[in-house]
Amino acid sequence: MTIPSTALQLRSLVQPDGTLQISLEPTPVPTPGPDEVLVQIQATPINPSDIGLLLGPADLSTVQVGGSAERPVVTARIPERAMPGMAARLGQSMPVGNEGAGLVVAAGSSPAAQALLGRTVALIGGAMYGQYRAMPAAQCLPLPAGTTAAEGASCFVNPLTALGMVETMKREGHTALVHTAAASNLGQMLNRICQNDGIGLVNIVRKPEQAALLREQGAQYVCDSSAPGFMAELTDALAATGATIAFDATGGGTLAGQILQCMEAAINRKATEYSRYGSAVHKQVYLYGHLDTRPTEIQRTFGMAWGVGGWLLFPFLQKIGNEAAQALRQRVAAELKTTFASHYARTVSLAGALSADAIAFYGPRNTGAKVLIDPSME
């Protein structure tokens, strides 16, 4: 194929006056170095972590789309109260997109790079919302024969996060876990992992239809936080599974505190004596998302043996080391079409991702609204 000298890349810019601008900018197509490959990106997902950089804290009700059909320009207002958090990126046009997949169309001279020429690979490393991306060959994951770019586009962030949660559970001495926003793509993956590996999992969702979806997929313990009996149902599930660690995607509001409260209540069902300090069993909630933008509220009704902290994938992978991280990646590659299969509500072009309709669809980060970008589409 003919490789152009320039190609489009989606970039996000926060201006000092509080205006967010998202546009498609022509950028030089790099020539791969000796140990690098050039990938024509054919599929790249819009993950919640991508939306954080793409849209920032912009008020979605202020979105306006200008420019042309081929080169749309999106603008939106960032609330004044959120601007201090944007100080480090003011005036910087930033590329977006954590992960993706596509065809290797050029390769450097090294044997490792040449071996990938013509292969479909998955990759992670930022700047994936563009038509081409150069990457070190060592950081590309060759997809199994017969696997499409769309099937491999989400094989890093969600799968490794789900596996990372299970690995964290094991390394910290817990035997079962809790997950919120559990009907998401990631949540469905975690449900399949736990079923395959015989691990107790308590799924927390926000709507009855989400609970029904997970039960149809074999989930045994599903609690709807909108139901009147949520706290009692959650306590029963925690008592049955013995789960003492949770991963909360909502971040804000009262849910983290409610989980700790129910964990304590479940543990105390087996208590043989009273302690004014609460149970000695450590209860841990990790916040790994911010779907609920309210402050995190914790009412301490669960003793002293507890913790709430943040959890992110990439620091976790660095912590466990390359060998352990590679073992997780190999499992993802082996189970890409089963355990780690992703599902998308829409596929759009780069320009299509910047339409007002598309932003209104994926911007709120609702379950079932996952979008895939195909930069090779017209």
TrEMBL record:
Keywords annotated in UniProt: NADP, Oxidoreductase
Query: Per its UniProt record, what Gene3D superfamilies does this chain match?
Result: Medium-chain alcohol dehydrogenases, catalytic domain, NAD(P)-binding Rossmann-like Domain
Q: Which InterPro entries match?
A: ER, GroES-like_sf, NAD(P)-bd_dom_sf
Q: Superkingdom, according to UniProt? A: Bacteria
MF annotations from Gene Ontology: NADPH binding; oxidoreductase activity, acting on NAD(P)H
Organism whose genome encodes this protein:
Acidovorax soli
Q: What's the name of the protein?
A: NADPH:quinone reductase-like Zn-dependent oxidoreductase
- Enoyl reductase (ER) domain residues are 18-334
